[in-house]
Automatic annotation (TrEMBL):
Localization in the cell: Cytoplasm
Protein name per its UniProtKB record: Transcriptional regulator WhiB
Function comment: Acts as a transcriptional regulator. Probably redox-responsive. The apo- but not holo-form probably binds DNA.
PANTHER family: TRANSCRIPTIONAL REGULATOR WHID, TRANSCRIPTIONAL REGULATOR WHID-RELATED
Main location, first listed in the record: cytoplasm
Binding site for [4Fe-4S] cluster: 23, 53, 56, 62
Lineage: Bacteria, Bacillati, Actinomycetota, Actinomycetes, Kitasatosporales
Natural source organism: Streptacidiphilus pinicola
């Protein structure tokens, strides 16, 4: 997926995990669906992206970034767009209940 643009000194550490990401070897097409993609091709692409994530040494930081930033598209940290939305809803409900 690549890396965020170079950031000024003090905040560069926040993105350093991306240098170790397994997805950096792949193009973004694996992690972000093209317009109109549906059905089996969508599901297979998403499964392939999640397989890359499953072996990634920075899966945790990637997932937490995506949740904190409310990334609206793509597979991040092994979670799809819908899975991230559901997880955030569960976290919000748990926080309210506590």
């Amino acid at each position: 997926m690549g890396r965020k643009p170079d950031l000024p000194g003090a905040v560069e550490w926040a993105w350093a995990w991306q240098d170790r990401a397994a997805c950096a070897r792949f193009g973004t097409r694996l992690f972000f669906h093209p317009a109109g993609e549906r059905g089996e091709s969508f599901e297979e692409r998403e499964r392939a992206a999640k397989r890359v994530c499953a072996a990634c040494p920075v899966l945790g930081p990637c997932r937490e970034y995506a949740l904190a930033a409310r990334e609206p598209y793509g597979v991040w940290g092994g979670l799809s767009e819908d899975e991230r939305v559901r997880l955030l809803r569960r976290r919000n409900l748990a926080r309210r209940a506590a």
